[in-house]
Write a structure and sequence with these properties.
Blueprint lengths: L1 H8 L4 H4 L3 H36 L1 H14 L15 H13 L9 E2 L4 E3 L2 E3 L4 E2 L3 H4 L48 H7 L1 H8 L15
Antiparallel strand pairs: 1-4, 2-3
Bound molecules: protoporphyrin IX containing FE.
The site of protoporphyrin IX containing FE has 19 residues, from helix 3 and helix 7.
Length: about 210
């Protein structure tokens, strides 16, 4: 917050520093709102979806419980350093982001120059909105696309075991792709630990099942 307020008065940013106090406040509030949506909302929404899917799919919940009980035991919480040895938990995270990408339409982009994509002429200045939600459910890429099936991502077993979420496989782009993809350095450091470690304890929950849809 201090940095943003300082920037608003910095002469290097003339369009902002020369504006009225009201406009500065609006810009500062917009930046803070973007940070909240981009970091906390995306993460918390996907944790909620993961928990909902686990409750709806007791067999997946059972396998996750078994993995944690076998690899970690029942005496302590899952730590960030444990994540490497929890491939099923990682697959649950991926499958949640596939079916319920927190940014279903990613973020709008605009082409800076004329180009041709798959035979379509795209003039400069065209606004591009990518429907990741639809792509993530496309049967041309996904076997039984509407099913919550983390096994598809298990290395050496699943039909999508080689599909990664860093924007290199265009059928799975919850973080976007290309130059605007969520920085993997940032995401690796900030996103997986709270995500995995905060929902992992709930994996041991027991109770009635219910179904979810989006
Ligand atoms: C489940 C978690 C998250 C999801 C699904 C997600 C998704 C996205 C998506 C779809 C974009 C737009 C990419 C594009 O323009 O094509 C984006 C941008 C961005 N995200 Fe995330 N994000 C998540 C968490 C985070 C976190 C935790 C941080 C930082 C701590 C972060 C930082 C950013 C930044 C800085 C950008 C803008 C990148 C740029 O425009 O160069 N994201 N995110």
């Amino acid at each position: 917050m201090d940095v943003i307020i300082a920037m608003a008065d910095d002469k290097a940013f003339t369009s902002l520093s020369d504006s009225t106090p009201e406009r500065k406040n609006t810009v500062i509030k917009s930046i803070i709102q973007s940070i909240i949506y981009a970091t906390m909302d995306t993460t918390s929404v996907s944790i909620e979806w993961a928990l909902s899917e686990l409750l709806s799919n007791p067999q997946v919940l059972g396998k996750a419980q078994e993995e944690i009980d076998t690899k970690i035991g029942t005496e302590r919480r899952v730590e960030e350093s444990d994540l490497e040895q929890l491939p099923y938990l990682q697959a649950i995270v991926k499958e949640t982001l596939r079916l319920h990408p927190p940014g279903p339409l990613l973020v709008p982009h605009e082409s800076t120059e004329d180009c041709v994509v798959s035979g379509f002429k795209i003039p400069a200045g065209t606004r591009l909105i990518v429907n990741a939600w639809k792509i993530h459910r496309d049967p041309r890429w996904w076997d039984r696309p509407l099913e919550f099936c983390p096994e598809r991502f298990i290395k050496g077993q699943g039909s999508s075991s080689e599909v990664d979420l860093r924007g290199q496989h265009f059928q799975f782009i919850p973080f976007g792709a290309g130059r605007k993809v969520v920085s993997w350095n940032v995401t690796c450091q900030v996103y997986p630990p709270p995500y995995n470690c905060s929902f992992a304890p709930w994996v041991r929950m027991e109770g009635p099942t219910f179904s979810v849809s989006s």
